[in-house]
TrEMBL record, chains A, B, C, D:
InterPro entries named in the record: L-rhamnose_isomerase (IPR050337), Rhamnose_iso-rel (IPR013457), Xyl_isomerase-like_sf (IPR036237)
Keyword terms of this UniProt record: Isomerase, Manganese, Metal-binding
The species this protein was found in: Streptomyces kunmingensis
Taxonomic superkingdom: Bacteria
The protein's name in its UniProt record: L-rhamnose isomerase
Signal sequence, renumbered to the chain: none
Key word Manganese present: yes
Gene that produces this protein: rhaI
Keyword match Manganese: yes
Enzyme category, top tier: isomerase
Length: 388, 388, 388, 388
């Protein structure tokens, strides 16, 4: 049986990065429902993220999205974060909201557009230098909507060339994380639709290029934990973008649609060294809280990852390995389910109390008055949102 | 073998309704790429729709969307359409772009919101009276994003009550067409997710409530032509919203993702009386042309339906029935494929020439100078789009 | 908060029916891996089923499959069951393993084949009279593999006619339960592919025709609990065939692939009167244990349904309704998740002890010596399997 | 515009390999419907395959499946084939129908089972030496049914080790083709579920290890032609297993479910050198004709690939490239659709006549008397089937 003290220590050292855009308004193509108190600046997003960390104790990093979080002085922004007890994390690029990118960015047929897109990515590395961020995360909206619209292989060649230019520019401690996504906004092909494509491109770039698994970006029926296990085996898992979905990508709170899947993913992480500090797996949220209150939704999401991690750490791996060796299917499955069926919330409440935190982060947030304060104070200006 | 003259006559009498919103800007949640020359008013949308009819000869009806096409005087708008050779068609309601509708419209927990939504639907019937439209098409964005968010059965009760209030108001020659959609913008449940739910609600409303099949609104693997056949058997197929998709709903041009599926659907329509005038099946497009030129895309879409219809009409139904009776799987399939593999474009070119049309509608449109004219003239003002 | 005594009482009265074929050999089209000790007769299947009931206390009914469980004297078989503490349950027909059924059974183009198939179904009702079974469950393998192979609507007409003949024959307390399945063994259409088709056919037959939801028979992304809620609202949910799957139908142990989905389904059952005795919902397993030990797998499956039921009964419905009324998405979801995240195993162990059962049914089975006994005794003869 | 003479020359040189098992009985897990006249020996399968080649002119190779086609003297079998105008092709291994393989073959936890499986694969290479076959095609049924059943990474390690042992044994002109499959018969994980896994394993083995794309083995919504294009770009496309499906894998005739997809796949083949002799892409059928007549179904399938190839060769690639360069989405798509919508059957009839073949292969087969002859002569003995 796992040692509870070791489990607690592992949980105490867990770090989950929250996305600056999760604090702003978002919506579907049909409607964005604005919420009161939503941040208007990068600083206000950091203020909110700091609250999430204050109450959960495991969310000290905040991912930036450029240009949504563009500021004049990134070092000052980093200092601002530090004052609030958090730090700037992964830099996310945006090569999909400019009119030039109608037919793609780094894969665009026109070299001028590709240069512009690569230029933006290089700017992001400059920002990383200023913020001390380790990771550049690329999600590319590149792709085509109709068969014949462009040449699949030519686009792949352009992708390789563009990524190589960015990879060259990275510092020794910086990484390029390449996300994949089956579809949307491109509806016939995306240029990086699956882990295989991302892996293939990363292999050719070099060691500091790694794959990001966004849990919402797969075809129906895909076994995500299998991919996670394979990438860990290859040393190519750069990180996660956590969220969940019932149908296609829709950025619901991680663990809300299929908590058992989240557990299985984290079970593979735990069993293959993915929680070791030197493995450098980035655990990030990438979500949109369209109709639910944003800060409590982020807190709930962080807790969902934490609870699933606790369960994964509680798997009796010796018993599991023994049952596997014996070909005892039911016992092996039962060992796993035993951990999953455990209610880990008392353990986590205990852990929080030991760390001087309120055992109930959501209640603590609601009691803190922060929500009332931001609703009252954040009046006027333009609320942050995907386009803001 | 089908009689070619009869096939031509059937094709000549075909009517495909185009959607006013297909002429305006549209996009994904990530970005709307604006196009030059896009209409700014309901009248300009009718101007564009008239061009589609001018060159195809089978698209005389234009579906309205309220409030996107709100005008002061609908009778005047109908007259405006008539002058341009087209007529106003189905009225589409919108109960998803108002802040009140965050948790639904006709299924909302709050009776005040439901009253507002029903009020809008009743207003749409008033507009139908003014425009002479036969059909009110309801696509409801109602649903929930998270398990537990609302009560599924209570929402269904509210749906039934709201629809009954609208049904009551219909004139004797008017219909309520209820669309279904698996997901989006609701991501856990929609309140009318499948044909079964729509059928069940329509059955209870009465004869003038019928089901709309949007070809993009199904779970992966759904056999759409089976549904079409069943609804025709029950006298409950009100119409189609045509479009296509490779993944989830994405409103590509009908016939562009799976032309064989479109053929199979129209084969069921042809074989079950769906092209008979008295069956009253409305053949509508419901598409968004995010990155392709809008008017030529609508022309191409109309032609795709026309070509698939021609193939469906060419099926040798006697030979098919004979092979089916004999259990000759390969021959039965071959009879169907023989029609599908036929190149019907020469037949359609001939038909167009007989009708005094240019045999190549897309080329004719490009040669007409209309695109250059609207790009030059439609400057200033606010372009039409989903939110406009 | 739910009253624990009431929850326990509800759990104590729960009844889960196990399928006779789950005790026999099964496999995929590639291979059947035979297991030692597998029953060779209907009686031996009842012996095994009796063990499942002995250790779980909630599985007193055994579903029969005709002709796999054909015996000369069904009254004697019922008496045999009774002696072992169980009773005969639902009768399942088989119209798919005879050469005549190559192109269907009750939907076959040839009236002779349809008569044969209907004759078998009528024989099943005779058996029900002898066994005292309430329900005839029809899963039809009818369908087509290729477009054009047969006429969809004609097949639906034949289906309606065949079912009507069977419905006529039912006694006043007997029901016809019509299962639906998206695909397999028919690969282009099945004749009852979805709940809508089953509902439509059942509506026309009458009150004693009801829909069976097999949890493995849906398109990817289908919200099964929505269907369950709707059918309960209509009084048309006849029962469940429980199993689970990661991809297409594959009959894994219920709750093993998506335990949260199972919980959500049972939450709708609990919230809409589905556990009330007078609702008459049949809770059945329909599984195949291809590579795992069969009896312990059935025990585990019964426990999985029991655990999910316990969680569903623990939902604080007052708190849920309050949060729903207030549009508090996060709280409503949290109320549901709170029940789901509860470890109900201690409660169930307690309940079993109160009932004089071993708190750990799987361990009790292994300690009982039954497995060793059947492996030793059931030598020679032909093992039961799908074709046996 | 493509030169018709060149298109004809390319079509005349096309080679499609038919599978020996496609001539035998097959079925679903529910039932195998036996057909009269089905072969009883490897030789009789070759006789049937020779008929397919006789009437199509492009199917001179026959894939073997070991042990289904085990004979004492493979050189004699090769000579037998040659006498009938065909030759032995790819050798397919079988590591899934032995009781030892319940938990896998080359990935099995027990080294003894792995040794047995590798031994079988080495035997297959011996057979290749005798038959002169170039390719060993591995489809592995390895995987797990339940989470926890075995260790994903350990299985991947065993897979790599087993494959390396086989790769070592290959002659310089022999290849190892590794197929992938999302699911079935393993229902939780397969050990080679997607192209990425196959690619990763093949990369490490060396140049003569390549990926096989079975068109039926993907998750819903997967863009297969994208994978084909990528593998061609990498020089890693070993070949195709053609078939089609509407839902999960079900081995329908290629081109029968989505002929447009087949065209798009072959368009990528044509555009990326995949038809060049030196690219060595193996074009194989892998199908089961459960309810349709087997030999005509194989002929029809060969013709479906041929027709789709003809369309792909007719794409005006200059016009396509020009439209792509200009970002003219509609024209680019129209160029592709123009080729797809062409009825290529007259061209193929012409080609066959030029080659001295009957222009209608199916009719020619039916007129040949072969079917009557085999039905009359092949009486007694055991029919070939998956297990025979």
């Amino acid at each position: 049986m796992p040692d509870i003290a070791a489990v607690k220590a592992a949980l105490a050292s867990q770090r989950i990065e929250t996305p600056s855009w999760g604090y702003g308004n978002s919506g579907t193509r049909f409607k964005v429902f604005a919420q009161a108190g939503v941040p208007r600046t990068a600083q206000e997003k950091l203020d909110d993220a700091a609250k999430v960390h204050e109450f959960t104790g495991i969310a000290p990093k905040v991912a930036l999205h450029i240009p949504w979080d563009t500021v004049d002085d990134y070092a000052a922004l980093a200092a601002y974060a530090k004052e609030r007890g958090v730090e700037l994390g992964t830099v996310n690029s945006n090569t999909f909201q400019d009119d030039d990118y109608k037919f793609g960015s780094v894969c665009h047929p026109d070299p001028k557009v590709r240069r512009k897109a690569v230029g933006h990515l290089l700017d992001c590395v400059d920002i990383m230098d200023a913020t001390g961020s380790r990771d550049l995360k690329l999600w590319l909206a590149d792709g085509t909507n109709y068969p014949g619209q462009d040449d699949i292989v030519a686009r792949q060649d352009r992708l390789a060339e563009s990524l190589a230019a960015v990879y060259e520019r990275l510092g020794d401690d910086q990484r390029l994380l390449l996300e994949y996504k089956l579809f949307e906004p491109a509806f016939y092909t995306t240029d990086v639709p699956d882990w295989g494509t991302s892996y293939m491109q990363c292999m050719k770039l070099g060691e500091r290029a790694q794959v990001v698994v966004d849990t919402g970006h797969h075809a129906p029926g895909t076994n995500i934990e299998f991919i996670v296990a394979l990438l860990l085996r290859e040393g190519k898992l750069g990180g996660f973008d956590f969220n969940s979905r019932f149908y296609a990508d829709d950025d619901l709170m991680v663990g809300s649609a299929d908590p058992f899947q989240l557990f299985r993913i984290l079970h593979e992480v735990a069993g293959n060294g993915g929680f070791d500090a030197e493995t450098n797996v980035a655990f990030m949220l990438d979500q949109c809280h369209n109709i639910e209150a944003k800060i409590p939704a982020v807190i709930r999401s962080v807790m969902n990852v934490q609870e699933a991690t606790a369960k994964a750490l509680l798997v009796d791996r010796d018993a599991l390995a023994a049952a596997q060796r014996e070909g005892d299917v039911l016992t092996a499955n039962a060992v796993l389910m035993d951990a999953y069926n455990t209610d880990v919330r008392p353990l986590l409440r205990e852990l929080r109390e030991e760390q001087g935190l309120n055992p109930d982060p959501v209640a603590a947030y609601h009691a803190s008055g922060w929500q009332e304060r931001i609703v009252a104070e954040r009046v006027g200006g333009e609320q942050a949102g995907w386009g803001a």
